[in-house]
Amino acid sequence: MKKVFLTLVCAVVALSASAQRASSSSSSFFSTESSDQPVTFGIRAGVNFANATEEEDGYSYSPKSNTNFHLGVAVDFPLLQSLYIQSGLYYTVKGWKLDDDGEEVKANPAYLEIPILASYRYDFSDAAQLQINFGPYLAYGIGGKVKYEYRGHSNEYDFFGDEHDDSWGAKRFDAGLQIGAGIIFAQHIYVGCAYEIGLANIARGDNSVKNKNFMISLGYQF
Description:
- β7 and β8 (128-150) form a beta hairpin.
- Strands 1, 2, 3, 4, 5, 6, 7, 8, 9, 10, 11, 12 and 13 form a 13-stranded mixed sheet that branches.
- 9% of the residues lie in helices and 65% in strands.
- The two termini are 30 Å apart.
- It is built from one helix and 13 strands.
- The chain is mainly beta.
């Protein structure tokens, strides 16, 4: 997924550079002029290809990705013509899958997530705008399950909790970095992708678990 994401980022950057060279009316790749645009809102929804990095007893391994979804509201705060702050509130389901000696484990934690991103904007024309976004995200776990299956028997536990209750025991707080790119067509239709790298350890005890997530999003900008 990282290679796919980097390929998409390189493609949109190359397209923007090409459009800049082709347009004789383009004055600057980055405008420091004040923006007269208002705060705008949009809706986003899409698919998550979620995973995690796990470390235990000095060993590091990565489970299989788990396909889930996200949906939410994006908010754009203009600073300059080429620079915005993009935030919002999302319901996003992450997780991973693991198959170890016949035992299958599938985790589906659900979070409320707030990104706080520096967002570069470049107008190809009146019909298309490039966005490149980078910054931190904060998330709080609100639900989800871990399901274990072994030789026809299955058990299911709450994903979040502590070591004293009947749950997997994950911490609810998560935080990390997000980098993404997208294009708005016809001033309203959004298509984009992003990659999230979790920096917070969500596991209790001696082991470490950090979320990873590749997202593809569609949306509408009001």
